[in-house]
Amino acid sequence: MDVVAATLAKSRILGMRPADARLRIWSYLIDYAVALAALLPAGIGLVIFRVSGAFSTVPMALSAVSALLMLIYAIVLISMNSRKGSSPGKSAMRLRSAHLGTFHAPGFARVLVAGLVFLLSHLLPVIGPALLLLSCLFDKEHGRSWLDKIAQTFVVDVRNGLDPTNPRALARAEYLLARPERDVSEHLPSLGTVDGGAELDELSLPSRPRSTAGIIGAQNSDWHAAPENFGGVIRRAAFAFDDGSYIPVPESGLIGRAPQAQGSAGNELLIALKDPQRLLSKTHLAFGCDGMSVWVMDLDSGNGTQITVASGAPYNISSRTRVNLNDGDIVHVGSRSFRITFQETDQ
Fold first, then answer.
1. Count of domains in the chain?
2. Of 251, 310, 314, which Cα lies nearest the Cα of 286?
3. Helix axes of 57-84 and 108-120: crossing angle, nearest 10 degrees
4. Which of 117, 146, 173, 194 could form a disulfide with 14 if both were Cys (CB 3.0 to 4.6 A apart)?
5. How far apart are CA 173 and CA 302, in angstroms?
6. Tens digits of per-residue pLDDT, 267-324?
7. Average per-residue pLDDT in the chain?
8. In CATH, what number is assigned to the domain containing residue 289?
9. 3-state secondary structure at position 185
């Protein structure tokens, strides 16, 4: 199996679905229709020139408008394709282009080269662009066009499969692929049940503290305790959840759908989160404050834990390994997320 075939096979395992040739052709036609709309003022100017038979400012002004619109459209196309693997036509058909090596967006350089080749194809009017756009029909095995091969990309249908330009979804899929032995029962029956075998649910949790926007409740620990004092500087750390909830970070705690204290100490702060997509494990993540730092640790969760640092893509963290957080880092658990914030004040 060659590299391309192996990469495309892996993409299917991750959940990506190759785009149908008909959808690709429709996306090309939509992109062309937008370009023709941008050229419409120049066409009107040409008609005025042919009718009048003399140069005037109106046709020149209309041609200038078309030139400006085409320049803007070219910038939009390059930006959308390089950053999101998309275009107006691809967006309408729910298609995305992804780089063969990384499954990320193609990038500026590759899109620019493919765009220049497509532009040069117009030296052979109609036939040149048509051959490039219909070349996906010639590749019976993978359905990749000549432009795909030049840019080292492939096109996927995100309506029926994974969107590779969604970094969280891609990171979660790669995490699951790396754990073929994962049991859907999560191997954690004792962490999501209480005495007698009943599942811990929202009703069994006390209402202190409680949020109306997604945190079901919290148990144990007094997280209202005074902040740590380090050499006259008071350092406070807190989790800002995606629903607007805000919880100061205690010495230790657990997050999940229905977390239960581990070990004999039983003094962890237990935070149960609502997760309509059911991607959150019962006891998903441990966290705590260790001196001047805040850490998190994935507890062999079913869908893993991802961290997004400033100006970076989400990455999976190893299970049962503490990872220290920096101010502004975003932690993704299931379909939920929270951001770590620090505040230092003089005593």
1. 2
2. 251
3. 140
4. 173
5. 11
6. 678 999 998 888 899 999 999 987 778 999 999 998 899 999 876 778 899 999 999 9
7. 82
8. 2.60.200.20
9. coil
